[in-house]
Amino acid sequence: MQARFYKEEHQIFRKAFRDFVNKEIKPNAEKWEHEKGIPRDLWHKVGEQGYLCPWVDEKYGGSGVGFEYSVIIHEELCRSENTGVLGMGVHSDIVVPYIDHHGDERQKEKYLPGCANGDIITSVAMSEPEAGSDLVRIQTKAIRDGNDYIVNGQKVFITNGIHCDLAIVAVKTDPKADPLHKGISILLVENGTPGFSKGRSLEKTGAHSQDTGELFFEDCLVPQENLLGEEGEGFKYLMYNLQQERLVMTMDAQAVAEYVLEKTIEYCKVRNVFGRPVSRFQHNTFKIVEMATEVEMGRVFFNSLVEDFINGIDITLKVSMAKWWITEMANRIAYQCTQLHGGYGCMKEYYVARASGDVRSMTIAAGTSEIMKIVMMGL
Fold it and tell me: Is 296 a catalytic residue?
């Protein structure tokens, strides 16, 4: 289904970006998956072309364009067959918006240009070993000491954590606050800050080229000027930005489901068993049309969600529905497409083999399917 919010200029942009992906990213997909990372110079190449944070205001080095361009970038990156580059989408459309929405002018001038040109890689550090979905239970503390905060704690499952130059860190500035969420603030912590260190690059079931790491803070001294927004308002900022984070996760899941199904249909038309194409067996035909229907349903829902977001309509309920249903749907599609590939579906030279692992975390990140249902119950 063609979205109503796309105009001719969007289609021209999509073609240009798809050409870039096909030239600079897709040929290296398997190599970077094996190396478990993407090269730093790719960030600069993407930034030079204006594909990082395209929504950033021109005065800070961005293009100042609408969210439609971010959607196109995510969809085309999902066709690159390499999940490592989705860390760029996390940077552009999940992390950097914190600075744009809640930062002061000095912080915007200092960080946004580098975020847009690839000089600065960002991460958002919320999850901890004992606190994921239940963010009010985080234990990382930031205690005021004169003009600084002394930060102690640990973060885990942090996308772009190992290579980040700037981490947006959720901390407890008032451990005794009642209610608990009133004690949460957000600090901007630069790489190289004394007391800030990076742990393991975590081994995952999929998305092997995507940087996911641990962060440690041991008497880390962060200047007061690196407080993002107001002290004690961090939980509100996190909840506000989580809606866009869930939208981003939904668009990635939808795009991967569409691409995996597309590649599977191509395979089933040319792979012969018992003297005829896999797609000519009735069971397989039924399975393909069932998947195509689910993918189309997801696309219609997703497009309506993006349209509401662009028009400034509250998407809290719909994005929770979409994040739950579409990420679960993407997992069903990946599983069934692997089955249709037979033995080749388990060979990493076929993207479908990697896709099953890549999409698995999408039902968990940015709020599990179960949390999405709890959110819906309260609305």
Answer: no
296/225 Cα distance (integer angstroms)? 48
- pLDDT at position 1: 59
Domains of the chain and any CATH numbers: 8-120 (1.10.540.10), 123-231 (2.40.110.10), 236-377 (1.20.140.10)
> For the chain, which ranges sit under pLDDT 70?
1
Tens-place pLDDT, residues 170-210: 999 999 999 999 999 999 999 999 999 999 999 999 999 99
Per the CB < 8 A criterion, the answer to whether 55 and 95 are in contact is no
Residue-by-residue DSSP string for 88-152 = HHHIIIIIHHHHHHH--HHHHHHHHHHHHHTS--EEEE--BTTBSS-GGG---EEEEETTEEEEE
Give φ, ψ of 277 to 5 degrees: -60, 150
Residue 100 in contact with residue 44, Cβ under 8 Å?
Answer: no
Contact call for residues 68 and 54 (beta carbons, < 8 A): no
Rg for the chain, CA atoms, rounded: 21
Q: Between vectors from CA 96 to CA 95 and to CA 100, what angle results, nearest 5°? A: 130
Share of the chain above pLDDT 70, in %: 99
- Of 33, 128, 214, 245, which one is the catalytic site residue? 245
